[in-house]
């Protein structure tokens, strides 16, 4: 029996998803985890990368900004340009691009080669993340769509909080280049899993680029995207430079920083599930709490983080709050869009999210190089307060139900 024959029983015709369909969902979750981990790896590797490549901390931080900027531009463009191609094929090609980018980063003899490699990573991650949400409804029966969507986007949340400390640990044990090699190996495994477990997903209809951009004109959508812009920019203005801040304020070494980032990551996974439940009832209230807690934590770290135990508590609270950002903002965006517009809304969300990552890494680097490394924390806290104000006063969907 061929793979095509195995999936001729369409998901919409059944009530429950089959084990093979859930394997496809898990493959997609592994895909979102892999692309976001690859994007964020420089955060935990900033100091050794900077030393090896012979650049400043702010310039090294641009390896994150470049990837985020490319992903922001490529996400809506790829959704439109590749709309006529089989989604399984597109996803496999994008994972191959991500694999190549990670290999290039691991090899990079200088900053110029690293920039090219990170551009490839940005293309791969922007396309995979944008396409992921649009195909979930085609992988499982209608009654399984909501849990399947949660599983797929848990990859984003878990990568945001666990991918960075994992990369930092690998970097501490075997060098920063080994961390990028590990990311390349993971991309290869996910590529194979997608090829094996995803069914053929022929194109349904192309998504016009102007139709995607027009969604920004809807008040609830616009408010949600502005909250994303403030919150994610603020977080990455601070978090991109958390390693040198901890080294400077707390006197932490590489091993201790890896532990602190792991504490952050574990707390973030907990925050993902707590916020996911809260966002289902009220995205506005959930994001207001997240914004307030994140702002307070980031502002307190340079002031009282000189004690390692206190720094550990602050990192845990930071992870708890930011761990809920991805699921809460995605819930807001999906609740604010019609079912027919969800792929376009998701690509716009991914574009803004990654543009905010790029902007945060850039402005944080400018502050760090121009004023001092702890100023990146103050900037991040101020932007998180902007997210709080926007969420409190803007138009929001009444609930987060998909």
UniProtKB/TrEMBL annotation:
Classification via Pfam families: MFS_1
Transmembrane segments: 22-46, 58-82, 89-109, 115-139, 151-172, 178-202, 223-242, 254-274, 286-304, 310-335, 347-365, 371-392
Positions of the Major facilitator superfamily (MFS) profile domain: 23-399
Location in the cell: Cell membrane
UniProt keyword annotations, A-Z: Cell membrane, Membrane, Transmembrane, Transmembrane helix
Record flagged with keyword Transmembrane helix: yes
SUPFAM superfamilies (UniProt xref): MFS general substrate transporter
CDD domains assigned to the protein according to its UniProt record, in alphabetical order: MFS_NepI_like
Membrane topology: Multi-pass membrane protein
PANTHER family reported in the protein's UniProt record: CHLORAMPHENICOL EFFLUX PUMP RV0191, PURINE EFFLUX PUMP PBUE
Descriptive protein name: MFS transporter
Organism: Streptomyces monticola
């Amino acid at each position: 029996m061929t793979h095509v024959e195995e999936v001729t029983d369409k998901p919409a015709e059944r009530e429950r998803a089959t084990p093979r369909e859930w394997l496809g969902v898990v493959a997609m979750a592994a895909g979102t985890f892999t692309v976001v981990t690859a994007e964020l790896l420089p955060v935990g590797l900033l100091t050794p990368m900077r030393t090896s490549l012979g650049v400043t901390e702010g310039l090294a931080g641009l390896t994150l900004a470049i990837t985020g900027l490319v992903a922001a531009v490529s996400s809506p463009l790829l959704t439109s340009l590749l709309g006529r191609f089989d989604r399984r094929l597109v996803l496999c090609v994008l994972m191959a691009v991500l694999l190549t980018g990670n290999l290039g980063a691991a090899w990079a003899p200088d900053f110029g080669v690293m920039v090219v490699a990170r551009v490839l990573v940005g293309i791969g991650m922007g396309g995979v993340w944008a396409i992921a949400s649009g195909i979930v409804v085609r992988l499982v029966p209608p009654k399984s769509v909501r849990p399947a969507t949660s599983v797929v986007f848990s990859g984003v949340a878990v990568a945001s909080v666990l991918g960075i400390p994992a990369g930092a640990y690998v970097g501490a044990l075997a060098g920063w280049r080994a961390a990028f090699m590990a990311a390349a190996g993971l991309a290869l495994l996910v590529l194979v899993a997608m090829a094996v477990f995803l069914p053929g997903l022929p194109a349904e209809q192309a998504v016009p680029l102007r139709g995607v951009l027009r969604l920004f004109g809807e008040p609830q959508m616009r408010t949600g995207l502005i909250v994303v812009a403030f919150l994610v920019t603020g977080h990455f203005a601070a978090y991109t430079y958390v390693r040198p801040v901890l080294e400077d304020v707390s006197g932490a070494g590489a091993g201790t920083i890896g532990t602190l980032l792991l504490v952050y990551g574990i707390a973030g996974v907990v925050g993902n599930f707590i916020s996911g439940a809260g966002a289902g009832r009220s995205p506005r209230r959930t994001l207001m709490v997240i914004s307030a807690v994140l702002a307070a934590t980031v502002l307190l770290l340079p002031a009282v983080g000189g004690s390692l135990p206190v720094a550990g508590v602050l990192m845990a609270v930071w992870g708890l709050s930011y761990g809920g950002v991805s699921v809460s903002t995605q819930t807001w965006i999906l609740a604010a869009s019609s079912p027919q517009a969800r792929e376009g809304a998701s690509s716009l969300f991914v574009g803004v999210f990654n543009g905010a990552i790029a902007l945060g890494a850039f402005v944080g680097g400018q502050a760090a190089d121009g004023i001092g490394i702890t100023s990146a924390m103050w900037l991040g806290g101020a932007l998180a307060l902007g997210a709080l104000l926007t969420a409190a006063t803007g138009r929001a969907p009444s609930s987060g139900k998909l």
